[in-house]
Design brief:
about 500 residues, alpha/beta, Fumarate Reductase Iron-sulfur Protein, Chain B, domain 2, FAD/NAD(P)-binding domain, 3 domains, five-stranded parallel beta sheet, globular, binds flavin-adenine dinucleotide, binds iron/sulfur cluster
Length: about 500
């Protein structure tokens, strides 16, 4: 094999007919070492991709390491900003690849597949990283609400800096949407367990089945800890609100995926309609096939070129994988009624849409109502989004928290809200709403929390980098979402603006 080749090393797919018969069988055949070395060797080292990565990982750094087959450095460079290397190797939407100078729709460096190789081939992270828990001249406690990727990332970077971290998780498992939403055929459960256990092994305490606002009050956390990090994600379903939504066989995707991922059996019948076009819609469609559906139709209100994420490499890949499995796509459709028989859904009625240029960015779908269409269905799954639920924050504190016009919490470049000591990140604050953005938030928030604790006099010093394992020098700079380097000094809450 040639070691420098400007064509991307292709990734092989497991046979689609076989994989639709299993909830666990992966889609992609991982790269071999030879393929990783060949692929990493293509990198030109320009660094454009770093701007595309919400966590600002030193991507060219780990390409150099892997071009030399140096897995240890590859892992350490990733861990500088990301404790979920394997999870992201499986499911990161890899926005960095869209920034790659070699990108011509299929030529960018396959950063995600290379990550997967690094993590899969490091069974014991501790043995490689040899992290020593730091002493910053104090060990105050910080409460983290939510054990999804965002909360756990903060738990990692804070605990390795000697902070006593208390994580409160409403469910009985760590991982958030990674375990309750994303199906195992895209994200193996062993990857989540391996990375969550590694994170928690540095001393964070985790309280499962503890919902803040019900089992423990938010004010108690504020009193008992020097800072609080809210990482509760988006769990309130957004429904379409049309006639027939209450019929048996109609689900919101989050509820549906949560049931399946908890081992519950659902008989979806032969014909399934999915409403939506994002991550969740694809997962609901592909799970339905694995539950035995014969025909799965994804209905989305916009056209294919207006779908979420288009024209990113991730949007192409997810469509290809679903089409390989024979998911049917029906673009530009608006469901307006579900009709049932004996309480069970039977027919989905819909209009076709016209895409209209509104003059303001994305084209808008407008239903053409003079003709009605119908589809026979046994199950309808609405993948129409979800929102944050901040009802656990008492009114008097909520009043002091600046929010956007749509009710989202406003945070500064260190993810601190307008209430000193309350930080927030992940799906509840960022717009991208993916794992790597939550991880990026938590890197900045961890640095911000340390700076805040130093201001309070609870610790004596703030390290230049959050990790302290040997090796490097690796990139340790923190950037805001516009790509500007963020300073070491901490802005006062009054400087916090939307
Ligand atoms: C079906 C689906 C597929 C997806 N696929 C991908 C993908 O392929 N790639 C990708 O990058 N992103 C994907 N995403 C998005 C990604 O999962 C989220 O962006 C990410 O999980 C957000 O992390 P988070 O930690 O902010 O929130 P979450 O993962 O939602 O975690 C929040 C945690 O907080 C807990 N919690 C909530 N309220 C409370 C409370 N009051 N007290 C205590 N605990 C509480 C919850 O139980 C949960 O464990 C997908 C999302 C869905 C729904
Ligand atoms: S943009 Fe592409 S070529 Fe440039 S450093 Fe990143 S991976 Fe390498």
């Amino acid at each position: 094999m040639k070691y420098v080749d400007y064509k991307r090393v292709p990734i092989k797919h497991f046979d689609a007919d076989k994989r639709v018969r299993s909830l666990n069988l992966q889609t992609l055949v991982p790269y071999t070492l030879e393929e990783v070395v060949a692929e990493s060797s293509r990198c030109l080292g320009c660094g454009l991709c770093i701007q595309g990565c919400p966590a600002r990982i030193d991507i060219p750094g780990y390409q150099i390491a892997m071009a030399n087959g140096n897995i240890e450095d590859g892992l350490k460079i990733n861990f500088e900003k990301l404790p979920f290397v394997e999870v992201c190797g499986d499911v990161c939407p890899h926005p960095c690849e869209d920034w790659c100078i070699l990108d011509d729709n299929k030529g960018s460096i396959a950063t995600r597949h290379i990550k997967k190789y690094i993590s899969e081939n490091t069974p014991d992270y501790k043995e490689v990283l040899k992290v020593k828990v730091q002493d910053l001249g104090g060990h105050p406690s910080v409460a983290v609400i939510g054990a999804g990727p965002t909360g756990l990332t903060a738990a990692f970077y804070l605990s390795i800096n000697g902070i006593r971290v208390n994580v409160y998780e409403a469910s009985g498992r760590p991982g958030g949407v990674m375990v309750h939403g994303i199906p195992p055929f895209r994200l193996p459960r062993e990857a989540i367990t391996k990375e969550a256990e590694h994170i928690l092994s540095y001393g964070s305490r985790i309280f499962y089945n503890t919902r803040i606002g019900k089992d423990v009050q938010f004010e108690e956390l504020l009193k008992e800890n020097s800072a609080v990090y809210i990482a509760t994600g988006n769990w309130k379903p957004t429904r379409i609100k049309i006639t027939g939504e209450e019929l048996q066989g109609v689900y919101h995707a989050l509820e549906f995926l949560n049931k399946i991922n908890s081992g519950e059996k659902i008989d979806v019948g032969e014909n399934v309609a999915i409403i939506g076009g994002g991550f969740t819609a694809y997962d609901a469609a592909r799970i339905s096939l694995r539950l035995g559906a014969k025909k799965v139709t994804m209905m989305y209100r916009r056209s294919a070129i207006d779908r979420p994420g288009y024209p990113s490499s991730n949007a192409f890949e997810e469509l290809d994988e679903a089409e390989e499995e024979k998911v049917i796509f029906d673009w530009e459709t608006s469901p307006f009624e579900y009709v049932g028989e004996n309480g069970k859904v039977k027919i989905l009625k819909y209009w076709r849409n016209q895409m209209v240029d509104s003059g303001r960015g994305r084209r808008q779908p407008v239903p053409v109502k003079d003709k009605e269409y119908s589809l026979e269905v046994d199950t309808i799954i609405e993948a129409t989004g979800q929102r944050e639920d901040l009802s656990f924050i008492p009114g008097e504190i909520m009043e002091k928290l600046a929010t956007t016009t749509t009710g989202d919490l406003v945070v500064n470049q260190y993810n601190m809200t307008s209430y000193p000591g309350i930080f927030a990140g992940g799906d509840i604050t960022n717009k991208r709403k993916d794992i790597i953005s939550g991880v990026g938030d938590s890197g900045r928030a961890s640095m911000g929390i340390l700076l805040y604790l130093k201001e309070l006099g609870k610790i004596q010093r703030v390290p230049k980098r959050l990790t302290n394992y040997e090796g490097g020098p690796y990139s340790t700079t923190y950037y805001d979402m516009e790509g500007k380097e963020i300073p070491d000094s901490f802005p006062s809450p009054t400087e916090i603006k939307e």
